[in-house]
């Protein structure tokens, strides 16, 4: 460490080095960001203003929309700035701050998806006790628990990152500060960081994964005993949630757990775009297009606007 220069700035490789692609990519992701904010904000406004949507399921959906807006706001504005300036430099404090919020929003989202699985389990398997179990106090406590857990989970990683020093000019092979890649470019001993990343990924990630999918084993068993009409209705209430879960987990697992995780390729960057930028965009589309109540609520709002 004596002859090594400690760096205060890091370089992001970005999505492309070609100057001719910077403006088209800027316009594409600006459109994606605006559509993400519009779609998720519309979901939140519909849930807040329509009394038919003020139920636990839509409360969780509104929370998910807020998390999606937060997740995309952590990564896309920074990406747009880099497309505009073409410098792709970021300070280490800013990088660590970005990692904190990325880990916070991603862990919050996967935890909330587990809570939504429990909500669907109670609604389908214990419908007569649904209002007693999923009352507003329980819903608020569950969301607060998700947020507090995610804050502490992110803080653990950040506190360990603050102890690292950086003296390598190796660019981060991404368009945002990613936790594993930041650890790789450090010139400190990162064995504790790497061990913690793997242990927490297995314990926390595996636990949340189990809590998300285990209720569906009971749900599917219950659905198969229903009549065709009730079975179709039950499937429709779960299909949107399952679609979002598979998209989110699929892109995350591909980004971090495929065999060539240390060899960053264009495919890896594309998968990162999916779970940081495109998933928050498609979530409101999935829920709005597959949910009759939201579509009816949206039509009601459009009619009001036309009458005004």
TrEMBL record:
Entry keyword set: Cell membrane, G-protein coupled receptor, Membrane, Olfaction, Receptor, Sensory transduction, Transducer, Transmembrane, Transmembrane helix
InterPro entries named among the record's database cross-references: GPCR_Rhodpsn, GPCR_Rhodpsn_7TM, Olfact_rcpt, Olfactory_GPCR
Chief location bin: membrane
Transmembrane segments annotated in the record for this chain: 25-46, 58-79, 99-118, 139-162, 195-219, 240-258, 270-289
Organism annotation: Hymenochirus boettgeri (Congo dwarf clawed frog)
Cellular component terms per the entry's GO annotation: plasma membrane
Domain G-protein coupled receptors family 1 profile: 39-287
Protein name, entry field: Olfactory receptor
Entry superkingdom: Eukaryota
Membrane topology value: Multi-pass membrane protein
Molecular functions (GO terms): G protein-coupled receptor activity; olfactory receptor activity
Family: Belongs to the G-protein coupled receptor 1 family.
Cell location: Cell membrane
Pfam family of the protein (one): 7tm_4
